[in-house]
Amino acid sequence: MQQQKKQITAITPTREDDYPQWYLQVIKSADMAENSDVRGCMVIKPWGYSIWENIHFVLDDMFKETGHKNAYFPLFIPKSFFEKEAEHVDGFAKECAVVTHSKLEQDGKGGLKPASPLTEELIVRPTSETIIGASFAKWVQSYRDLPVLINQWANVVRWEMRTRLFLRTAEFLWQEGHTAHETELEAIEETEKMLEVYGEFAEQFLAVPVIKGRKTASERFPGAVDTYCIEAMMQDKKALQAGTSHFLGQKFAKASNIVYQSREGSLEYAWTTSWGVSTRLIGALIMAHSDDNGLVLPPRIAPAHIAIIPIYKNDEDKEKIMEYIQELQSALKSLRYFDRKIRIEIDARDISGGERSWNWIKKGVPIRLEIGKKELENRTFFMGRRDLEPKDKKSISFDDFVGSIYDILDSIQENIFQKALKFRDENIISIDENSEFYRFFTPKNSEKPEIHGGFVKAHWCGDPACEEKIKEELKVTIRCIPLNNIKEEGVCICCGKKSLERVIFAKSY
Ligand SMILES: [Zn+2]
Questions:
Q1: pLDDT at site 3
Q2: Can you give the residue range of the structural domain that contains 327?
């Protein structure tokens, strides 16, 4: 608390001082999640989980609007299923958790040991193409059965060595869409459509501006013909892949034997896609918007829209203020903001008003209302907005507040988006010189390598060797080849050979 006054920020260290630690402190101060006793796995606490519920709520509706239905498939994948697609196996083998035994028995030393080896080992799903493909093979007989448009909300396990809350955990929550189509064109259109959905969701709800593009061959989903992605910039100017949509061609259909009788009567393999976003989006949300006072939440995804802090000196005042708050609750009760109720947290804890106010600042709640005797008498609220400075508060009348609640929430949402957009656009530059490119991605202050750089638009000849060289030497990757890229002639930033378009280079999460 002493320190807090000195630095006038609620989070220590600040972004500037130590970005990775700042990130963890924001999560801790907002009480969103914590490391669990299980290696690499996190406990998502109510405030963090509620954000995931809202992501689920909005996206689920968007998936249904685009014709998809939810289903659920097993957590375990027989090893033989997994082995069917060679590239897929290669991509995930190192991260697989494998179940080898059932049952436990006494080990004779006071402990337990696994008892019965399984006849076929089971993989805990890292992704479900193969197990869902097996079902699709049964469901699809004729072209009349297509398309199959399925989504699953689930957990997956990828045995990561280095983990970080929300960004990289051994188990995480996600949704995975899986579809099968009659034609190649239809499957490509589906892949692109879902990328649009993700882009719209990221920008309209998470207030995170994204660049839509395609991955290079080396960055593709293991087994995919083409991977599309949305890439966002975090405040340390690194990129975060916020969602992917894969065109799988007929590769997985061949592996799972998804065959249909065509309109002409011949047997054909279906064309499939898969697409997903995960709890990683919460990491993106935190790193794109939060400041040195903690989490900043866009209203359309926030667990609560308003935090109310009653300030009173005696029981009589308290009673009157609580009645006034109830009146506000009733006035807002029937209102819906983006299909959700206006959610209110009332914080009447027996601690100072200032401390309670900081608590909600750190949790990122969009609107804070402080209500004391003066507000009660004047029928006003003392309002603070999370997108503005903590001290930037103003008085607003009861009627004005209720009457303009949508405008206030929209204005906060827009403000948060515009700030992130401005930051991103200020940190994207075009570079044509190899030496300048290397200088740009080399930290100027070796003690603080975390905050530097940005996105660079540079020419690339298309040769994976150039991509690999840059990755080796600078830890910089091609984040994407932007969709609707302007074709312009130039020379490859690495080898100097002819190039027809620019790609986005950046360090990434
Ligand atoms: Zn090159």
A1: 47
A2: 306-411
- The pLDDT-based confidence of 137 (bands split at 50, 70, 90) is very high
Longest dimension (CA), the chain: 83
Which of 469, 464, 470, 459 has the alpha carbon at shortest distance from 499?
A: 459
Q: How far, in Å, is the centroid of ligand 1 from the Cα of 100?
A: 46
For residue 271, the surrounding DSSP H or E stretch is: strand 271-278
Q: Answer yes or no: do 173 and 216 share one domain.
A: yes
Distance 493 CA to ligand 1 centre (A): 7
Pair (28, 126) in one structural domain: yes
The residue out of 411, 439, 473 marking a domain boundary is 411
Domain total of the chain: 3
Q: How far apart are CA 98 and CA 100, in angstroms?
A: 6
Domain shared by 239 and 366, yes or no: no
How many angstroms is it from 216 CA to the middle of ligand 1?
Answer: 13
User: Residue 205 domain-assigned?
Assistant: yes
Structure tokens given for 446: 């070796």
pLDDT in tens, 388-408: 998 899 999 999 999 999 999
- Name which of 185, 221, 71, 223 is nearest 135 in CA terms: 71
How far out from the chain centre does Cα 49 lie?
A: 13
Are both 323 and 387 inside the same structural domain? yes
In a domain, 419, yes or no: no
User: What separation, in Å, do the N-terminal and C-terminal C-alpha atoms of the chain show?
Assistant: 32
CATH number for the domain that contains residue 284? 3.30.930.10
Q: Among 211, 117, 180, which residue's Cα sits nearest to residue 420?
A: 211
Distance 442 CA to ligand 1 centre (A): 20
- Alpha helix (H) residue ranges in 247-352: 251-256, 280-289, 315-333
Res 2: pLDDT: 44
Dist. CA 507 → ligand 1 center (Å): 19
**Together in a domain, 221 and 108:** yes
Going from the Cα of 261 to the center of ligand 1, the distance in angstroms, rounded, reads 45
CATH number at residue 485: 3.30.110.30
Report the sign of the C-alpha dihedral through residues 262, 267, 269, 270, in that order. positive
Each as own residue / partner, the long-range contacts of residues 137-143 (CB below 8 Å, 24 or more positions apart, any chain) are 137/256, 137/257, 137/258, 137/259, 140/180, 140/258, 140/259, 140/260, 140/270, 141/260, 141/261, 142/260, 142/261, 143/182, 143/260, 143/261, 143/262, 143/263
Please provide the DSSP assignment of 447-469 as one string.
Answer: T-TTS---EEEEE--S-HHHHHH
Overall residue count recorded for the chain in this entry: 509
135 with 26, same domain: the answer is yes
* Residues 99 and 179 placed together within one structural domain of the fold: yes
| pLDDT bracket for residue 1 (50, 70, 90) | very low
Q: What is the spatial distance between Cα 413 and Cα 206, in angstroms, rounded to a whole number? A: 9
The answer on 226 and 101 residing in a single domain is yes
Separation of 88 CA from ligand 1 center, angstroms?
28
